[in-house]
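for the writeup, i need someone to sanity check this before i put it in the appendix. the sequnce is what the collaborator sent (i think, or maybe the updated version? ugh). structure was predicted straight from it, no edits. if anything looks off just tell me and ill rerun, i have time this weekend
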Amino acid sequence: MYDRTDQAIRLIEEERRRIARDLHDGPAQDITNVSMRLEIIQRMLKTNPELAEAELARLNRRVVGIVNSIRRLIYDLRPVAIDEVGLIKAVTELCRRAQEEWPVSIELTVAPDVHDDFAPAKQVALYRLVQEVFQNIRKHAEASSIRMSLTRSGPELHIDIADDGKGFDPAAIPAGRYGIAGMQERTAYLGGQLRITSAPQRGSRFLFTIPVYGER
């Protein structure tokens, strides 16, 4: 049996592994590809300067894309000023940015009785969970639309995120993929539950149920 301190340390380590995966699968591989293309262009300069110039223009656009990708990673890692804006506004802004940066439509619904006057640390933790679901959808789902709702029943907040992507089998995910084990563990650390419903070609649904009201 692990105590809460040990669990917190393991959650921090899981977050570090997630960041390392994002850097490896994104900018690191892209920069390696740019280096290889530069070597090819260097040889082309002697044999076909015009084609080399065209390749350099394409490569420049690629570099701009890499810079934007790194900026997104930095933005996502910045501390969220939950104590200033609250969970609802932070999630609303996340949805707005997602629609601007990748081709997806997002419908966000917040029930009238949902408010964010509970512990800021727990709000940050919930925001990070939503953020990770969005990252998974972006990287794996090939979705065109997302429906997200925040509802409440008694002391529990329900965060429901569903997409129309290609789906997956939750029971057949290779270790280390999607970060689902980490999300489940962090949800449990908050005293809540995560229910995942998905199947190939049938989209995915992540339902977080976490007690947040009535505590400080």
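The chain has a mean pLDDT of 86. The longest helix spans residues 4-47.
thx in advance!!
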